[in-house]
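User: Before I run my own analysis I want an independent prediction to cross-check against. Here's the chain; please return only the structure tokens and, at the end, one sentence I can use as a sanity check.
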Amino acid sequence: MKKTFFVLLFSVIFSSLFAQNKTLVAREYFEYDNIKHLEIYMKTEQLEVKKYTGEDILVEVYSNNSKTCPSFSTADQTLTITSCKAEFSYPIYCKVEVYVPVNFIPETITIENLRGDSELKLLKAKDDFNFTTETGKVIFNSISSQQFNIKSVTSDINYKNLSCNSFYISTVSGNIDISLSSSVILSKIQSDSGNIKLTYDKKSNLEFLIYSEKPLTRNQNSYKTNLYYNPAQDASFMISGDSVTLDTKKGSVELIAK
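Assistant: Structure tokens:
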């Protein structure tokens, strides 16, 4: 019993010492005139990407160990930020903050953060915005692109003010809560067991195909929307306008029109 107690106590103290030593270990500036693509590949880091009023792309890394600093590359008109390849046997804290100028609108943005938390705000891409995670917490706010893609395993996906032409969002067991700020075409939300909630403009011409084993929940305004609930494979229904497919095997679906 005493041995177990001292092992736990040492572990807590050891973790605290490392967690409290969060110092700036890297600060890099990148001119963005020739940058057409932004790519970020993280493993367990805390990641924050947002707009600021500076003239260059700014990357700051805070960590309790300078050896955890990501690598940077600007080859092929692409700014690439890649997680440290080294593995550590003791607690590591690392936060990567990426600040992009207001006028920086690349052709594509690709972000992967497998097990770390991510917060992404006020970002724009001319074409595709792609985000991949496994278990990290994700916060999106006001991201604009032509095509918006998210893939997750267990992470909950919460997104306010999504603006795009089309989107594809998939998760295995995480819940999905999306608020649209524009109309879309041929889009899809898919989950094996997570719940799906979609908020949209009641004045839009959206139509919905919904696949779920549970009863649909909807507010009064959504009853004006064309909707097909669990249509048979051979059903002769016609989608005449912009459509969104909501597909969950074991989760619930909620539609909110505002």
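Sanity check: The first strand starts at residue 23 and ends at 30.
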